[in-house]
């Protein structure tokens, strides 16, 4: 009786104040490292992710993680970059035990690009085959007619025979797309041009540098390419580095660490995954990193930070809370 009385009072209080009980409040800023909730109040589960801006909406694709399991690829949508609506799983694990994407394998660092010629959305990711740990080192490809999926798994391979682990995709101004990937047991960072349909690798495949780097995140400003990478220490954070080039095929020049301020030497306890241009703002790019929690991977946090420029070189500085208002134009 006392229990139901309490419930009644609680419901009444909720309705009197006009507040929905389980809808989280609208987000109006980024809080790097906090727990980020989606528009339904669930913790966002999209790690090692990447964004795609498509017809006025941003889509965030990322690894769905259990405590340690890799459970497929989640997708969220947002108009403002702060409030993310869950759109379900873009690519789920296959229930066919013979599939390359069956349970017990890994799908990491998914990235999606749109091909205007074929009108298909194309997802690439780092695939590890079921039961083989990190030994397969392959690129996986999936396709959909709809941005949120479900994506249909196509195939996996090693580009031109090279191992392929941490990766990103990049579409240049002329519509050519590229896969940037850690090869040769992560000692080499390579770049390969994709075929016109974005589904395969061409033989235009080059070594960028051999510095034992991973977690590549790439962007372009004023004809200059900027590539931020991490070192190779598993889930543990390390120092980031920045390379620049005027051609994707190099030469790439090592500039140094673009992170600035306290904890910069460990990328603020994070690891790069993507750099997203902000629509409608000039020279506005968001540096996106994961703060991994290897004891509970789904609880890994998101570090989104604004990129500023000093002498035309990108700088990423820690801030506890910020908005896209940091860019005036
Ligand atoms: C990191 C890599 C992650 C994940 C992890 C596993 O170096 O960037 O994506 O593969 O290793 O230990």
From TrEMBL:
GO terms assigned for molecular function: hydrolase activity, hydrolyzing O-glycosyl compounds
InterPro entries, A to Z: Glyco_hydro_43, Glyco_hydro_beta-prop_sf
Keywords, in A-Z order: Glycosidase, Hydrolase, Signal
Keyword field contains Signal: yes
Pfam families, A to Z: Glyco_hydro_43
GO biological process: carbohydrate metabolic process
Signal peptide boundaries: 1-20
Similarity-based family: Belongs to the glycosyl hydrolase 43 family.
Protein name per UniProt: Family 43 glycosylhydrolase
Organism from which the protein derives: Spirosoma rhododendri
